[in-house]
């Protein structure tokens, strides 16, 4: 069979197309066509054995499917704590890779663990120029949600300039919120939000603990709109719609400057589910992700199934 003979000469004997053409007494363009026919007929099966780590392949696929700029993936650790530590470490590395600059810092478990681990190391100057909180301070005895303290520690350990937001995370009324907006310290932070280079935000499940007084802020709107996750103190559904409410008086970076930031890293703690990740990616806010490789693979499988169905 001529197709098989030509294929063996090219792939097994490593002869060039010109050498095969000379041996068989036929033209080189015909050899090229015969090799193409051999592949199409199944006589030849070409396999590419990539030497890239699987995490890089998964991230490359996620960049294409979800239209993001990149990120960092980690393997699952022995428990949630070790996984969260790896996620925090990868987030710090990604911030450096993206050039640092003016950083906005969210809150949450994995960000809190990242800051605590950073505190235990010697202070080292890096590419981060300044750090500001993306949300006010939450009055609970959980360090992960003490925004100013996290900013203070991270700025100290990276030898960068801290900016603080001296307000609670939640105002009681619209009039109180409006008064806060008029204060000089809020206006100073607002200017920082407008010139961020990178924002690091948590992606969390809904429902979750703490729930940030979601009942008082939203009534039954989170149920009506089928909320699946939270980003800073914004809730969203699996379609990526950020759910609003007239009773939501949170002091946090508005969506517009967050979306305008050149790079927004969404970091998923070890317990984050696939619907929360997909919803966050569909908001159009996230440009980079730090997550478990297994979680991103789940999200890709869901996205592919949605495309094919």
Features:
elongated, 16% strand, Arc Repressor Mutant, subunit A, 10-stranded mixed beta sheet, alpha/beta, 14 helices, 2 domains, Rossmann fold
Characterization of the model:
This protein is of the alpha/beta class and 309 residues long. The chain folds into two domains: 39 residues, Orthogonal Bundle (Arc Repressor Mutant, subunit A); 255 residues, Rossmann fold (3-Layer(aba) Sandwich), CATH 3.40.50. Strands 1, 2, 3, 4, 5, 6, 7, 8, 9 and 10 form a ten-stranded mixed β-sheet that branches. Strand 6 and strand 7 form a beta hairpin. About 2% of the residues have low confidence.
Layout: helices, strands, pairs:
Elements lengths: L1 H11 L4 H8 L3 H13 L13 H13 L3 E5 L5 H18 L3 E5 L3 H11 L8 E6 L13 H12 L2 E2 L11 H8 L2 H11 L3 E8 L8 H5 L2 H4 L2 E5 L2 E4 L4 E2 L11 H6 L2 E6 L5 H9 L5 E5 H16 L1
Parallel strand pairs: 1-10, 2-3, 2-5, 3-4, 5-9, 9-10
Antiparallel strand pairs: 5-6, 6-7, 7-8
Helix pairs in contact: 1-3, 2-3, 4-14, 5-6, 6-7, 13-14
- As for the number of domains, it is 2
Question: In percent terms, what proportion of residues is strand?
Answer: 15-25%
**How is the main sheet built?**
10 strands, mixed
CATH class of the largest domain: Alpha Beta
- Helix/strand-derived category reads alpha/beta
Radius of gyration: 26 Å
Are there runs of 5+ residues with pLDDT below 50, and where? 48-52
CATH architecture designation of the largest domain: 3-Layer(aba) Sandwich
Outline type: elongated
User: How far apart are the termini?
Assistant: 42 Å
> Total strand count, please?
10
